[in-house]
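re: that complex we talked abt at group meeting.

here r the seqs, copy pasted straight from the sheet so there may be weird spacing, ignore it
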Amino acid sequence: MRRTKSISLLITLALVIGLVFAGTSVLADSVPSVDPNLPASWFGERPLASELGITSFSEAPMLAEKVAKGELPPVAERLPVDPPIIEPYERIGNYGGVAHVWARDLDMGVGDGRMLAGLSGCYLLGRVTPDAQQVLPNLVQGWEYSEDATQLTIYLREGVKWSDGHPFTADDFEFWWEHIALNETLNPIPPDVWQPGILDVKKIDDYAVVYTYDAPSPLVHNTFHKVSDRVTNYPAHYMKQFHPAFRDEAEILAEAVEVGIDTWDQYFDYMSSKNYPERKRPVLDPYVVKERGLTYIDYERNPYYPFVDTEGNQLPYLDGVRINRVADRAMKRVKAFEGNAAICGPHLFSSDIPLYIDGEEKGSYETYIWSSGLGVESAIMLNLTHQDPELREIFNDLRFRRALSHALDRDEINDRCYFGMATPRQTTVIDASQYFEPHYAAAYTEYDPELSKQLLDEMGIIDRDGDGIRELPSGKRMNLIMTYLDSNATPIIELALEFFREIGIDVKLDMVSRELMVERRNASNFDLSQWHVDYVTDIYFPGTPGKSFAPVGGGQPYSPWPTWIAWANSGGTAGEEPPQHIMQLIEWSLGLNQSTDPAEREKFAKLLLQAQAENIWTIGTVGQAPVPIVVANNFHNVPRHGMLNDDVDWGSVYYPEQFFLDPVTK
Amino acid sequence: MGSYIIRRLLYFIPTVLLISVISFVVINAPPGDILTSQIEELEQQYGAAAERQVQALRERYGLDEPLYKRYFTWMKGIILRGDFGMSFSGAYVIESRPVKDILLERLPYTVLISLLTLFFTWATAIPIAVYSAARQHSFFDYFFTFIAFVGRSTPNFLLALVLMYIGYVKFGWSLGGMFSSEFVSAPWSWARLADFMRHLVVPVIVIGTAGMASIVRVLRATMLDELGKDYVETARAKGVPEWRVIWTHPTKVALLPIISTIGWLLPGIFSGSTVTAIVLNLPTIGLSMYTALRDQDMYLAGSCILVFSVLTVIGTLLSDILLATMDPRIRYD
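got the structure back, here u go
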């Protein structure tokens, strides 16, 4: 435990130093997750140019030049007939400039690349509202469910084009479905095992497509901002030339061999990547890859991007984005501190907030404090399906979980790790969720170590040998080990274990690799673990309550109930059948996903959340923590407040197309 | 001598093959593969079907094939087509690109940084060592010995961090990388060259100092041995000026142990310093090997190790030949 002590000492020290540097500006109440000054139109369907009476459109000078030379058709021909509008956050921007961001190769899809350039193509069909309550039509005009929600009709916007000028139509959906999704070589997993299972995709006319599902799927549009709907990754008119259904396989293979690939399906994957200029794959994103250097990737604006601002200027404002490639996330943090990034958010540490504020003047940037948007930064989970019967019984006893929860001084954790700007909470959905109730977050969170001790005494977990550590009712030593992955939350865990020790529960830490953690989870071979609670906005919580509230779904490296999940996912052929009160959770989660009646969905959601609040399947610590976003002084239209996590696509819900570089400031 | 070289070249083939087998096995020893390290991304894309999708991808990219089969496919590509396989470490799992391209694009800067470092090392180490030996127990001998020990015992990355800090706080230099933002993709110009040189100061000093220390120590010790020998006394007795006595005869002999290690420098030149490259964000091959090993990008990692092994073997051969030409006492039968 000496290590733990010294680490918390360091944290305290950092805090003190931080406060000296930062003055009082850091010490605020909990951080808001939604900026009150956001344009109202960001919360509703995209307005159209005609509704605002815009009839003429302007374009960036670099595009006007190309039009003048005859390399591009005029802007009005490139845009849809009635283009959708994106209202700027603060003011109409000016064209030009290249914004620099920094990212590790592996993070491009999840971090800065996505934040600024939408490089993962995530917000294409639909876009999440800034409060993360809904997904609204973006590139498409709208969608409509059938009565029983087994069919979904998507209506496309007429005149939306790929970056090479080819129209984006129902043909692209049809190609994706028939030649990619249903192709056994490209997609060995039959679509009916996807979640939800798609049975058919049918083109009605050029601008309408019908999806048919195997079960009522009233929430499937919540996935429209995700990559899993990969239609937007496969422009039919371009990708057909690499598909043997449209061209002689021998010819394709001859091309493939030139780059060192010997099967057509690998080559198809290869050519579908949009991050290599020589592969020339058209995109729907705001930016198109232009050049790959040794240490950077350059993207330039998509001349066919269909959105305009409230004055009819085609977006994006920026000429381009440069992603500087770093080997390590630490270098990116350094670059942000130096003021070398237009914007930098993902993977910065909350504990570095004072450091960033201190560097503002020298680096000509400002530090915005956003919310992590996580229900809990680190939730402690006991293995409810433990192999050891005695431990399993104890872990499944609510008194034990309550004892641990009451032992935590969450205010101190908050003060020491997050400058008091996070919110002490139990595991539940975020405050901005429509299903949120204050008592869900407050459940068993008061700091009361005496109550904890009393609960443990009641259970017969008593210190028999006087060493300050309690023994199991059977008299055996209670050797508990927390298996965990190193993360930003490690300081929370170290503090939490100190609190546990104060009530006589000794937990040792065992940091493992992800592979080992998954292996132990699958074998249900761990005592305790921890993970952050994400997927708790209204976009994801209904779709994947399994992340924290019911033993369904899965995939994550942790789980408080591994064998029950295995049972539910395998349809009862693997794992262990859960007890009745857990089966109930699985039923509610199914109801939440399949019910077509919003009132009924709300009922199921609240049942799940109420069950969590009563049973604390995982023990929450603090949530909605402050995260630093470094924004250059000359980079504008970035909201002052927001959330930064996967639920909101790493900030791409804040319309990065309308961010701009002001040549005057700086 | 000729037959010696030919014999050595023949040994070369089995040695390299053996190294390639061992390195491939070792790289594949840890559980998991490139897909495991990107599983989070895949889960977000595929949800509950992620595990099956991962299995499908494994099949497509041959990651589930037995080790020996993957090894033979890889070797076949290298021997027949000079194709080192595909690297998967991109933003997405499907973002593959040829390993060859990655190595080739990084090669020029890696070699440049390494050669500059080598030049720095020798240009400082040899005079210091000779001076220390000639003026043993003088103030500067102790001074340089101290510096050399500090250089030897300080971890490179720490020195890099300290110098970066000083560079940023005192001189306002941008931290890490090879160019400032405005020059990254600019065409070559004097301003760009100056910027490049300024960025190289820290890495060259950091990597150079570590190497310098060991050369100074070895060279100084051998020099001290030589300086006491009769032929040096004879030269002095004949009235040859002291600087000529030192530089012509004993220095030449003292350099032999250094020459015998020249060959080992070869792989280092091509890999560049790994840890320093991480800290300073230099795009060296050593760095891509590090990331490849971390992400279990096996063809890239395997190719790096293979290339470095081949260079080590070639380097050893070169050292032996150099030594034979420099030192007439060495004979090969």
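couple things i noticed - Strands of chain B lie at 86-87, 97-98. The mean pLDDT of chain B is 82.
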